Amino acid sequence: MGIEYEMVGRHLGWGEDRVFYYGPDGRLKSFLANVTDLFPIDSFTRISAGRSAFRVDDLLELRERLDRQMRGEGGRQDV
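The chain above was modelled as a monomer; its predicted structure follows.
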């Protein structure tokens, strides 16, 4: 369905799982591994078929952060 690249490596750096490949110009390039088909599609993505902008886990985390903020438990970095 998309463009295919030959993977030459994979590296976790600065909290990002990246896949490396050589571009048409011969230079080493990379992109996030989660935008590749290296991972099976999770159940939510498969069922929602792109109709939802948010994952349930992300919404639950947002709710938790908002609740902490409302109780005055979170610092400015939380929200």
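Strands lie at 7-13, 16-22, 28-32.
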